[in-house]
Amino acid sequence: MSNEARGSRDEDGGSGQPSVKSVEKAFSILSAFSGRDRFMSLAQISQAAGLDKSAVQRFTRTLCGLGYLEQDPSTRQYCLGRRVLGLSYEYLRTNSLIEKAAPVLIDLRRTVRERVDLTLRDGDEVVYVFRLQSKRETMQAALIGRRVPMFCSAGGRAILSRMPREEASSVIQATNRRRITPMTLIDPDAIMHEVDTARERGFAVQNQEWRLDEIVAAAAILDTDGRPVAAVHIAASTTEWDVAEFSERMGPLVAAAAQDVQH
To answer: Which residues pair with 221 in a beta bridge?
Structure first.
């Protein structure tokens, strides 16, 4: 068998689609830092990425040379490198939906004087890609790239509400529904009730299910085929807003903003 044929066979991940294993391993190492402490040892990276230590050592050396990982000279531990930010910047800069949504979100922020966010759907999660802060925020509430499960996110439920009901139910059933705060709904029927309510009124409201003391209203953005792909959020403090008052005031505004992004 030729080297070319052998390479093609080795790089077919069993799915019938070509894959390059070395690229998969490199990204598994970068992904190993998700949700963990800033610095990790080789042994910790190896365990998190599911790779043997010798392979991790080779890949970390290469990724450090490229700037996608950095190494602390005193502890010899690794963290994500600044080059990762360049990829994020280019994604945000060239995403047509974000470009189209930005002026709408800026106008909405001026009107509501609360935090305004844009999320994109990614599987059973939504990812924050644009955030306009209010008068007081924690650092984590200001960062893009944060992922939130759809089942407990106002934006996720807004997106689910624009899917066929059977499809939305399937997404919820297949999701690992863990309780994030004491307020988080994890029963599929209770979550579907919130999705159905969002379908009826055109926006979703989530009260302290992801962050305590935070209430969020969100509406879905549809693509040209009518599929929900993103959501606009307005987030505020429960110390300043009653749930009913917040829904009445912010729901129509966030729904109108989502419509403006679509058209």
So the answer is: 230
Domain span at residue 211 reads 95-262
Unique residue bearing structure tokens 């009826």: 200
Q: Which residues of the chain have pLDDT under 50?
A: 1-15
Contacts of 64 (CB under 8 A, 6+ apart): 70, 71, 78, 81
Coil, helix or strand at residue 104: helix
* Confidence at residue 2, expressed as pLDDT on a 0 to 100 scale: 37
255: nearest Cα among 132, 108, 127: 108
Domain harbouring 14, CATH code = 1.10.10.10
Bridge partners of 121, per DSSP, are 126
Residue 144 has a pLDDT of 86
Q: Which two tokens stand for residue 209?
A: 């299910």
pTM of the full structure: 0.84
- Identify whether 90 is part of a domain: no
Comparing CA positions, the residue from 133, 117, 185, 129 lying closest to residue 157 is 185
pLDDT at 13: 45
Q: What pLDDT score was predicted for residue 141? A: 66
Residue in 185, 157, 169 with CA at minimum distance from that of residue 251:
157
Task: Determine the 3-state secondary structure of 222 from DSSP.
Answer: strand
Number of domains in the chain: 2
Q: Give the burial class of 196: count Cβ atoms within 10 A of its Cβ; 0-12 exposed, 13-18 middle, 19 or more buried.
A: middle
Give the chain's radius of gyration (CA, Å).
21
